[in-house]
Automatic annotation (TrEMBL):
Keywords: Isomerase, Rotamase, Signal. Residues 82-181 form the PPIase FKBP-type domain. The keyword Acetylation does not apply. It catalyses: [protein]-peptidylproline (omega=180) = [protein]-peptidylproline (omega=0). PANTHER family: 39 KDA FK506-BINDING NUCLEAR PROTEIN, FKBP-TYPE PEPTIDYL-PROLYL CIS-TRANS ISOMERASE FKPA. Its EC number is 5.2.1.8. GO terms for molecular function: peptidyl-prolyl cis-trans isomerase activity. The keyword Isomerase applies. This is peptidylprolyl isomerase. PROSITE patterns: FKBP_PPIASE.
Length: 230
């Protein structure tokens, strides 16, 4: 069983949801030969892709067993909780006992010009993604190796049209942090709406949400509160 499976950050709406159940990683590094066999692992030939060999010593140790390697260091801002991020990613899983990485998702296969959009600390992404993104900067590219305890644990994850991810799989993600939107007005509006929203209800209507996304919402609540009166 491998202890160093590479991991890509999760992106699709289905794979974004992190199961509550978690299982301790049973990954045990047993031999140098096992390392070599992992480094030679590639994606299935019919995918036309290969997973570049990345010696484990090139990765830095992150929190809670996460491993990461910066392929490109960004020059923009680092994200904080509540920032809206655009992330391109590709992901592979390594089933327990397997040295062959299976590609399960790639944001560029859906839209090469637009990555996954979500709010850090609010969207239910897996913990390995959150920990990996927190120390990146806009424009950066990072490879992640995510143990099962920071991924999907002992839960099988399935999505229509994509390979199912077996329980206790290690993940490899290659992420690109395209944009970091840290607009303070957007954050304040979100916080105020969350505060005013009755428990179990949706304070912002679907029409308002779409208008916010389109930038056409007139006099948002937060702007009304701060509007100067003559």
């Amino acid at each position: 069983m491998r202890c160093f499976a590479a991991a890509l950050l999760v992106t699709p709406a289905v794979t974004l949801v992190a199961p509550i159940a978690r299982a301790p990683s049973q990954c045990v590094l047993q031999s140098q030969a096992e390392i070599a066999s992992f480094m030679e692992a590639t994606l299935p030939q019919d995918k036309g892709d290969t997973l570049p060999a990345s010696p484990i010593m090139d990765f830095e140790k992150g929190p809670e067993g996460l491993l990461y390697k910066d392929d490109v260091v960004g020059t923009g801002p680092s994200p904080t909780v509540g920032d809206e991020l655009e992330v391109h990613y590709a992901g592979w899983y390594y089933a327990p006992g397997s040295t062959e990485g299976v590609k399960f998702d790639d944001s560029r296969d859906r839209d090469a010009n637009k990555g996954l959009m979500f709010e850090l600390g609010i969207a239910p992404i897996i913990k390995g993604w959150s920990l990996g993104l927190e120390t990146m900067k806009q424009g950066g590219k990072r490879s992640l190796i995510i143990p099962p305890t920071l991924g999907y644990g002992d839960v099988e994850v399935s999505s229509a049209g994509r390979p199912s991810i077996p329980p206790n799989s290690e993940l490899r993600f290659e992420l690109e942090l395209v944009t970091v939107n840290n607009d303070i007005i957007r954050k304040m509006r979100r916080s105020l709406n969350d505060f005013l929203r009755p428990q179990g209800s949706d304070f912002v209507s679907p029409e308002e949400k779409q208008a916010i996304r389109d930038g056409t919402l007139k006099k948002p609540l937060i702007e009304q509160l701060f509007q100067k009166k003559d």
